[in-house]
Amino acid sequence: MTVQRDLPDFLGGVTLDPIAEDLLKAVRQEIGYREKGGQHTKFGNWYADRVQDSQYRNAPWCDMFIAWAAEKAGVADYVGQFAWTPSHAAWFIQKGAWTAKPEPGALVFFDWKGGKSYKGIDHVGIVERVSGDKIHTIEANVDRVWLKRKTRETDKVVGYGLPRVVKERLTQTEIRATEQPFVAVPRVEAPQGSPFDILGTPQALLAVMVLTTVVLSLRRAGHRRGTRRVAHRRFRWPWNAPGTPPARPPGRLRPPGPAGPARPADPFLTADPFLTTGRGEPAGPSPSAPVRHPDPALTGRPEGGRSRVPAGVGHGGERRPTATRRRPYEPKG
C-alpha cells in the first residue's frame, strides 16, 4: 500500500513504513480544522472522556490531536497517547526510539527557546517530508486556531520520536518472551560446591590454628593439675616403702621392754566391725591380713602363736577390769 498523492509529488517514490503511512493518512484528513470558541475542539473532548478529566476539553490540543489520529489509525501502541509534550518525548526516550535525524512519519518536538532538553518542549507535530535542512510537518493548534501544514527550521527541534522503532522493540520483546526453540539448548550447570572446598581458605587455616592452640593449652593445664595431685599423694605422711608393714603413728608405739602376756581377743570387740582404732581400721584382726608368727626365742612364747591367759590379767599377774561393750540403749554408768 502506497501513500495517496493528495499533495505535490515531493516524496520521490519513497515507500513509507506501515505505521507512518497509516498515521499520515489519518492526520491529512483533518487538515484545515479550526478550534471552536473558548479553545474547545473535538480532540480535546475525546481526550477528556478518555481520561475522565474535563480540564482537557479546552486545553492546548497539539498532542491530543496526535493521540486521536493514532487511535483512529490503529497505531496508538506505537505512537503513544499524551496531552503533555514533555511526557510524550520522555516516553520515546524510555522506549529507545529517540533520534536527532528526521524521517517521514516521525513525531517532531520543539522548544521555542532553542533548548535541547525534553523538559523544555513546547510543541509537537508529525513530519510529512524532509527537504534539505527543513522539515515539512502537519501540526495542530498552530497560528492559534488551526490544524495545518508547516515548514520548519530545525534549530528549534529537540528531537524526533520514531513509532516504527517502538513497534520493532515491542515485537522483539514478544518474540523473546514466547519463543520456544525446537531443540533445547543443553544447560551447563555450575558445579556444586563441596563442603571440603573451604579447607583451603584462609578462614579454615585460622580456625585450625586457633583450635590447635586451645587443645594444647587444655592438655598442658590438665598435665599440671595431674602432677600436683600425684605429688600430693606421693609425699603424704607416713610413707611406707613397698614390701614393708604399715608404720604406726607416733604415740601408739609400745615402749621397749619385756613383752607381757597377751590378752585374749574379746569376742565382743573383735567381732564388732564398727569398733575401730584411731586410724579408722577395725579393732579385730582382718580375715585377709597375714598372721605373723614372731620368733619364740625373742618373745618367750611357745611357737605356734600367743599364749592364752585368762581374761583381765595383765603384766605381773595383775587383774584388769574386763572391757565390756555398752549397748547403744543402755544408760551410762
Helix content: 25-40%
How many distinct beta strands?
A: 6
Radius of gyration computed on alpha carbons? 61 Å
SSE succession:
HHHHHEEEEEEHHHH
Average of the residue pLDDT scores: 75
How do the strands of the widest beta sheet line up side by side?
A: 1-6-2-3-4-5
Task: Profile the largest sheet.
Answer: 6 strands, antiparallel
Termini gap: 145 Å
Count of alpha/pi helices? 9
CA-based shape: elongated
Q: Unreliable segments (pLDDT under 50, ≥5 consecutive)?
A: 1-12, 268-284
**Percent of sequence in beta strands:** 5-15%
What would you call the structural class? Answer: alpha+beta
Outline the structure in words.
The protein is α+β, with helices and mostly antiparallel strands. It has 9 helices and 6 strands; from the N terminus they run H-H-H-H-H-E-E-E-E-E-E-H-H-H-H. Helix 1 crosses helix 3. It is elongated, with a radius of gyration of 61 Å. The termini are far apart.
Short characterization:
This protein is an alpha+beta fold. The protein has helices at residues 18-28, 42-51, 62-73, 76-79, 85-95, 163-178, 202-234, 267-270, 296-299, and strands spanning 98-99, 107-110, 123-131, 134-142, 146-153, 157-161.
Topology:
Elements: H1 18-28, H2 42-51, H3 62-73, H4 76-79, H5 85-95, E1 98-99, E2 107-110, E3 123-131, E4 134-142, E5 146-153, E6 157-161, H6 163-178, H7 202-234, H8 267-270, H9 296-299
Antiparallel strand pairs: 1-6, 2-3, 2-6, 3-4, 4-5
Helix pairs in contact: 1-3, 2-3
